UniProtKB/TrEMBL annotation:
CDD domains: MFS_FucP_like. It comes from Megamonas hypermegale. This is L-fucose permease. GO terms for cellular component: plasma membrane. It comes from the Bacteria. Keywords: Cell membrane, Membrane, Transmembrane, Transmembrane helix. Pfam families: MFS_1. PANTHER family: L-FUCOSE-PROTON SYMPORTER. SUPFAM superfamilies: MFS general substrate transporter. The keyword Transferase does not apply. The chain crosses the membrane at residues 20-41, 53-77, 84-101, 107-126, 147-170, 202-219, 261-285, 291-308, 320-337, 343-365, 377-398, 404-424. It is found in: Cell inner membrane. It is a multi-pass membrane protein.
Length: 431
């Protein structure tokens, strides 16, 4: 096998397979952690007798942590190495998962939110480092392909997280609300403590996996993949202030930031409340059976990525995403207003349309920025993930206010409508 050589631009002459596969496994880890939030929202809703708005704060804590750590993580990467940033992320991830144990003993919702926030800090480090590192681990011409391969691990991890939650957190028998309605106040308290212990089970497995992955990263030699010299002398260095001033005046960039904010918010909101929607529309099923709809959703998300990739080789990227947005708006209206269980299948089908959105909006938004400003612009686009903290809370508030979980899905209609407008605007620019 040819000797591994790093070029001046940070790329390699070949891809080190073991290191690349190990790195790609991190994508599955944060996919699993994120999907477990959908389980926790349903579980905590009943255990702590929360409103839909309060239960959505699980996502606010999670994506709030992502938002706050993005810039500090990028600074650590710039001053040290990708590998060190990943190991810091794994330590925070393990620490956040470990906080679930005292949280279950204290039996307070706030302590669980603290644990989720700490976990998200670790995931923020992992995702900030891994996305770029994946593109760098090999020849430059295959950088996008490597990232796409790594990203296919994420829905696999998401489905695994849901299955862990289904079989380890959710239990057999009637739904939690039905069981608690038949108990005395003293019995309800003991029942809640028992259910919180079940919440720990998937995190015990995750901690073991994380420790193993941490050890593997510790003993595995990784190339630095850092730029050794200025390979493109035409790119001038600019200050942060100048960059922010330029981006603030770039209307197309600002439209893209809003589109990404709404997309992430919509995706998280739809996934957060799919299980709850199933429990509302099919009263006789329990949480474990309702979790199957999330497994189907992640399968649709996985398939949707490949379908979109094929379509985008045949048609304009902007036209494909405009069509996806129009279909998405129709499906969301169906979910919000069709008073039977087919609305759940429509909610699952929405995931087919979510697959290509993040990467496409990211790339199209970055195209609107001059090359010398792209590094900071990319970090700001990543920070738009804060939409995942905002939109589920808004949907939860609408559900509480109207008394209809089903109608609350209308919030996502406006998100998809704006995304459609964004890509329609891009088509007009193309012409």
């Amino acid at each position: 096998m040819a000797k591994l050589i790093q070029y001046d631009d940070g790329y390699l002459n070949r891809t080190p397979i073991f290191q690349f596969v190990l790195l790609s496994c991190l994508f599955a880890l944060w996919g699993g952690a994120a999907s477990l939030n959908d389980i926790l929202i349903t579980q905590f809703k009943s255990i702590f007798t929360l409103s839909d708005f309060a239960s959505a704060l699980v996502q606010s804590a999670f994506y709030g942590g992502y938002f706050l750590i993005s810039i500090p993580a990028s600074v650590v990467i710039r001053k040290t190495t990708y590998k060190l940033a990943i190991m810091v992320g794994l330590i925070f991830f393990i620490g956040g998962c470990s906080l679930f144990f005292p949280a279950s003993m204290m039996a307070t919702y706030t302590m669980f939110l603290v644990a989720i926030f700490a976990m998200a800090i670790g995931l923020g480090f992992l995702e900030t480092a891994s996305n770029t590192y994946s593109t760098m681990l090999g020849p430059r011409k295959y950088s996008t392909l490597r990232l796409n391969i790594s990203q296919t691990f994420q829905p696999i991890g998401s489905a695994s997280g849901i299955l862990l939650g289904k079989y380890l957190v959710f239990q057999e028998g009637d739904s939690l609300a039905s069981q608690m309605a038949q108990l005395s106040p003293e019995q309800v308290h003991m029942f809640r403590l028992q259910m919180l212990q079940h919440t720990l089970e998937p995190y015990k497995i995750i901690i073991c996996v994380l420790v193993a992955v941490f050890i593997l990263f510790l003993i595995t030699k990784y190339p630095k993949c850092k730029v050794k010299s200025a390979v493109d002398n035409t790119v001038a260095k600019v200050s942060l202030g100048e960059t922010l001033k330029y981006l603030a005046g770039n209307n197309l960039f600002k439209k893209g930031i809003l589109a990404q904010f709404l997309y992430v918010g919509m995706q998280v909101a739809v996934w957060s409340f799919t299980i709850r929607l199933a429990l509302v529309l099919i009263p006789h099923i329990n949480e474990r059976e309702a979790a199957d709809f999330m497994v189907f959703s992640f399968a649709c998300f996985f398939v949707g990525k490949f379908v979109a990739n094929f379509l985008m080789t045949k048609f304009s990227v902007n036209k494909v995403l405009l069509a996806y947005s129009i279909i998405g708006c129709i499906l969301i209206l169906y979910v919000a207003f069709m008073p039977n269980l087919t609305a759940i299948y429509a909610a699952v089908a929405i995931s087919i349309l979510l697959g290509p959105c993040w990467a496409t909006i990211y790339a199209e938004t970055l195209k609107s920025v001059e090359k010398k400003y792209t590094e900071t612009a990319g970090a700001i686009i990543v920070m738009s993930i804060i939409g995942g903290a905002v939109m589920p809370a808004i949907q939860g508030f609408v559900s509480d206010t109207t008394g209809s979980m089903q109608f609350s899905f209308i919030v996502n209609f406006f998100c998809f409508a704006y995304i459609g407008y964004y890509f329609y605007h891009k088509i007009k620019i193309e012409r």
